[in-house]
Amino acid sequence: QVNLVESGGGSVQAGGSLRLSCVASGFITSSACMGWFRQAPGKDREGVAAIERGGVTTFADSVKGRFTISQDNAKSLLYLQMNSLKPEDTAMYYCAADFRGLEWVGLEPGRFGYWGQGSQVTVSS
Description:
Elements: E1 3-7, E2 10-13, E3 18-25, E4 33-39, E5 46-51, E6 57-59, E7 67-72, E8 77-82, E9 91-98, E10 114-115, E11 119-124
Parallel strand pairs: 2-11
Antiparallel strand pairs: 1-3, 3-8, 4-5, 4-9, 5-6, 7-8, 9-10, 9-11
């Protein structure tokens, strides 16, 4: 029933922008904490950005000032606007959800129980 599907990834030159989208179904996004994570080959999955039930957002230090997370609850969509992309941003990006009703979840991957299939982002120098 719970399903998350990412889209919007692709290849872009350093300094460019991409916007990832995640379509959520099976739950009300406004009742959940939603997040974006990424995983590069040979590396652990890391948190990128999250938006809590109350709307508070959290960003990894590596993307602060460059990425923005937002959601359109009416359309059950989660977005990640990625600006000023760097080669180090290259990774598979995943959206995730937690709906335990917590006010704060943060950016730890293990705290999110539902995941999308991922969307590849490749940034060239």
